[in-house]
Amino acid sequence: LKVVVVGLGYIGLPTAAVIARTGAKVLGIDVSAHVVETVNSGKVHIEEVDLDGLVSGVVARGTLRAATEIEPADVFVIAVPTPFADDHAPNIGYVLRAATTIAAVLKVGDVVILESTSPVGTTEKVRDLLAQLRPDLKVPGKTGEGSDIAIAYCPERVLPGRILVELIDNDRVIGGITPRCARKALTFYRRFVRGACVTTTSRAAEMTKLTENAFRDVNIAFANELSRLADTMEVDVWEVIRLANRHPRVNILSPGPGVGGHCIAVDPWFLVHADPANSPLIRTAREVNDAKIEYVVARAAALIEARPGVRVACLGLAFKANIDDFRESPALKVATELARRFGSRIAVVEPYTNALPAAFAGTGAGLIDIDSAIEQCGIMIVLVDHDMFKSVPLDERIGKQVYDTRGIWPDQPAPKAWGEPEPLRL
Ligand code: SAJ
Prior knowledge:
Blueprint: E1 2-6, H1 12-21, E2 25-29, H2 33-40, H3 51-61, E3 64-67, E4 75-78, H4 93-103, E5 111-114, H5 122-133, E6 150-153, H6 163-169, E7 172-176, H7 179-189, E8 197-201, H8 202-232, H9 237-244, H10 267-274, H11 280-305, E9 312-315, H12 330-342, E10 346-349, E11 366-367, H13 370-376, E12 379-382, H14 387-390, E13 401-404
Parallel strand pairs: 1-2, 1-4, 2-3, 4-5, 5-6, 7-8, 9-10, 9-12, 10-11, 12-13
Antiparallel strand pairs: 6-7
Helix pairs in contact: 1-3, 4-5, 8-10, 8-11, 10-11, 11-12
Bound molecules: ligand SAJ.
């Protein structure tokens, strides 16, 4: 079996490597020559648990290689980004470009699978494009007769940091343009998926993926709204959530400085954009989560302004714990805004980078390690719950003014108990 994976990013590369481990010959295609060279030298350009060992193994064995040019194969997997424009309109340009590339080498019997998170109807658009570009091939669902190729939508569901485990263990939803397409894609996924593989239509599978991430976004928005209410009412939100979650049918997620990453902060808009009149809850959740960033900036700024001259450590830039991914990161947005306002008073601690991102250029803020931050900074703004931060014991935090947006230090005493001046009312 020969498989081509188009797009060697956070999903494409781990997927390509896992398929290569089954013994299939896998070719990963990427537009970046740097990514192609890195993979071909057995290395990885992204940080993901155990991915480096897996990639070096399958490259050494000759089952995975990368290129910028496509080749014929039996199965094509599209794993390219689907960003949105300023008006939240989804941009499926990369998907259509990938389909165009595939069309050039497509032959009878091939299977084309779209994995990128996409608006409902995208797989049908891929089908229409392939039909247009390859009039010599019978495409599924267009004619009453059998088709020459199979086309399916099979969304990824993996969690960064657990990608290699979840690629294999999670259930997969496989949506065919026709039931026969779904069955052909199913045969492929059974090679490496241990979870259940459930077949449906491509439209239902597309909506399922968007629904999963919108569900999470709405639930995080609830937690973020609660944290603002609790601040107003001077109650510890973490305690309230812990207590409420003792109810057998309540399961509140964790508040934070906002929602980041390239999925949950993006995908709900695909639903809203498709039908604004019928999606007020999903839209509001997005707005609540985005507004949390400004709220955190305002509270942190009040804390910093009240202590002139005191250095401030912003702990974390990643969009969530224990990863190096800064895409759509609320922590990055908060820290850059504070750096812009308070300049060299701001020190950033981020164990997952060696240099501050370009957004900090000219602000005067610096990158320091956690030990230096503990020594030099009287104010600590916790933005990411990296394990390294969680492990800082109480005696190293005593006497510091802490704004913990992630609730990683439940033992941090209330400011009054430190014998400090009357604490700020934020
Ligand atoms: N977050 C909170 N509070 C929480 C949980 C998360 O503030 O209680 C924040 C995180 O800090 C982060 C953001 O939400 O900024 C998203 O993190 P996440 O861990 O919820 O999700 P992602 O973006 O890493 O991965 C999600 C997953 N989707 C669901 O859990 C429904 C994953 O399974 C998907 O494969 C992935 O999106 C994707 O690619 O779509």
